[in-house]
Predict the 3D structure of the following.
Amino acid sequence: MDILRPPLINIGGRIYRRNITKEEHYEEEEDFSYMGPPESEDLAEDESCDTHLIEQTEKGCRCAIDVPSVLYKYIIGKKGETRRRLEFDTKTSINIPKPGVEGQIVITGPHKAAVSSAVTRVEVLVESFRKKQPFTHFLSFPLKDPKVQEGFLTFKEEVLKQCAEDHGVDQSIFQNPAKLHLTIGTLALLNDMEVRKACEHLQECQNFIRDITEGKPLPLEVKGIEYMNDDPAMVDVLYAKVNAKDKSDKLQVIADRLVEHFVSAGLMVREWDRVKLHGTVMNTLFRKDSTVEDAGGTGRQTVGEREAFDARNVLKKFGTYHFGDFELNTILLSQRYSTDCTGYYSSAGSITLS
């Protein structure tokens, strides 16, 4: 690590430095220090935690914070070492529910500054290890219109008929037609409360989306295919291009505004300046595991296990293929590794454009 340019993390508008120390229990355990004046036993009042309510009690101060149970182990550490260090450094007591039991972590101490310091350090740990969790949900624009599905099945049939001799091209790498979609962004929602929060934020987006669409479904055209890497002879993913039929940028604007909203709410991490609108039709991740969900993650296989395919003929013969037109009227919070009665992903929440 470059000590002059340490990795930083932003939590609640405050910037923290991430210090990495090796531990036996994890590949790496991360400790954090506030990027500000040196710590003292009496933390200045204006540096106290302002994102959680710290209550005054007969014995001092108390603060309860919501943390998904899957993250408890990172606060406890190997044989309780992390929790003991936090308690020693901040002169507080940290009470954590039993593993697998959803609840609140309760921090108590003699002074508000001490409790505030412990809350901040727990939050930084939680935020750091949250980023290492696999995503559980994703915002999607479903492409499960019958016309588009029929067009996709014809595309698959013709590709297998005309390009089956090309390296790596076989039926195992085609998307499930019932799960055709555009991924807008991924979320790691680690308990029911976080899922409800994400649903509430999705509902908040409905008004600005209807302003963009004037309260009407958005006519879309699914036409043409593109690839994601530099060499068409060694391709991992082919995707269908999706655009508004009126040639406007409404679809892009909606996708970008959704990501902006969820990033601001702390529920999503921004990966690109603009959402890459694509509907996957062929993906080598499907070859060995048909349950892999193509929603922005890498699935269960490492890059080295992927067997690319030669897409030159597919691109030459089907580069402008027309899958179909349809009207988008629903945006879904979809659950990874799931299926509903239609064959699409199970939905935790939804909004409509009209």
